[in-house]
Amino acid sequence: MFLVSNADTLRQLHQDHLGHYNNQEQQAIELMGLLNKLYNEQDVQVTLFGDTLNTTSVGQILALHQKVALRNQEAQSIDIAATLAMVKTLAENDSLQSAQVDVGQLIANDTSLQAALQAVNISESTVNSATDVVLYGFGRIGRILTRLLLSQASSSKGLQLKAIVVRPAAAGDLAKRASLLERDSIHGSFAGAVVVDDENNGLIINGRFVQVIYANDPSSIDYTVYGIDNALVIDNTGIWKDEAGLGKHVQSTGVKKVLLTAPAGGDIKNVVYGVNNDTVGDDTIVSAASCTTNAITPTLKVLNDEYGIENGHVETIHSFTNDQNLIDNYHKADRRGRSAVLNMVITSTGAAKAVGKALPALSGKLTGNAIRVPTPNVSLAILNLNLKSAPESAEALNKFMRKVANSSTWQTQIAYTDSTEAVSTDFVGDTHVGIVDAQATILTDNHAIVYIWYDNEVGYSTQVLRLATQMAGISYTQIPA
What we know:
By secondary structure, the chain is of the alpha/beta class. It has three domains: 2-124, no CATH class; 130-262, Rossmann fold; 291-457, Dihydrodipicolinate Reductase, domain 2. It contains twelve helices and 21 strands. The strands form three sheets. Strands 6-7-8-5-4-9-10-12-11 form a nine-stranded mixed β-sheet, sandwiched between helices. The radius of gyration is 24 Å and the shape is globular. Belongs to the glyceraldehyde-3-phosphate dehydrogenase family. Residues 131-291 form the Glyceraldehyde 3-phosphate dehydrogenase NAD(P) binding domain.
C-alpha cells in the first residue's frame, strides 16, 4: 500500500514539475516575440545581468534564468514571469530607440521600468545606422568574430559583416572556408546555415551574403567595387602592427578605420574595453591589445581601485596556439619549436607590461611570464599581487569580487565562480573576458593571489566587438543608467 501511495505521489510530482516547465516554455515563446520586435523595430537589446536573451531559443532563455539564479547567490533569483512582464511594458514604449535594457538589474533592485526610463533622457537617444565591417584574415579570431556577428538576429543597424579578406588560394578554397566556419573542434557546430556562392565568390551565412576577397596587399583593394564603403576593417592577421603597415588598409578605397586584434607598437593606442576605451576619439587605427591583457586588466583595475597595488607578477597558463609546432621542428622563437601537444613551454609575454598602457596607474609595477600548455583553448592567469591595503581575509576579497561581477558596470566582462569542480573546459564559449575562481584565492597579509580563467578566443572576440561598436560610432542608452 505504501509503495502504491508513494508511486502516486511521485507521479503527481512529475506532472507538477512538467506543468510548471511547460508554462515557462510558453512564457519564453511569448518573450521571444517581444524581444524580436524590440530588436528589429527599435534597436533595443534586452539582457539579464549582462547576458543577452536569445531571440531564437526557448532553451537558452530558460537555462539563462536558471544560470543567473545560481550565479547571483546574493541577489534574488529572477522568474521568467517577471522578465516577461517587464519586457511587455518595455514593448509598449515605442519612443525608446537604440537602448540596452538589463531587466535582471531592474528586477533585482526593485526598480520600476518607468523610474529607470525617467533616469535617462530617452528623447536624446540616437538612432544607430549601419556600419560595414571587413574581416581581414579568417583564422581562429576571424571565424569566432564571424560566428558572433552572424549568430544574432538580422538587423539593418549596427555592425554589418560585408566581406572577408584572405590570401589567394587554389580552387575549392571557398568550400574549405565554409567548412571551417561550420565545424569547430573546440566550439562545436555553428548554430546556423553556411552556403557557398561560387558564382559571386562569397558565403551566404544565415541568409546574409558575405563577400570573400583574395589579396596579398591591403592597399590594393577597392572595396567600393563590392558595395562596401566607410568600412571598419578588423585585422586578424597580426602581420602588421605599426602605423606604416596598418595604414595600408586606410590607403585602400572604401575603408574609414582599422582595428587590430593584437598588441600594436608605436603611437597606436592599445585599448581594453571597459578600462581605457574612453581614450578612443577619432583615431583611425586602434589596437584591441591581446587576449591576456584583456583578461587581466579589468580585474586589476577594480583591485587597484579598491585596495591599491604596490607591485606584482602575472603568470599565464596559456593554451597552445597556431604559431607553435605540432611536433618538434624549426621555429625562430626560443622553445616554441618543440611539440605543443606534448610539452609545457615556457615563453615570454608582453601582457603584464601592456597593462600599463591601458591602465597607467600600474605602469612598471607588473612583471609577467607565460607557460604554453597542451590544451587547445581556455587559459588561466595567476595574479600575484602586493596590496597597499589588504582585505581582512580571502573570503572578504572574494566577496568584493562577487559584488563586482554582479554589478551593472562589470557584469558583462568579469564573472565569478566558487565551484569546487570548475576546470578549463567549463569556460569554453564564455563571453566574459575573465572569470575569477574564488576557490583558488589566497591571501597572506597584504599578498593576494587571484586566479582568472578566460576563453582566449570567445572572451577576447567579444571585447573586440565592443570596441568595434564604439569605433563605428554606435551607442546605446544604458538602462538602468
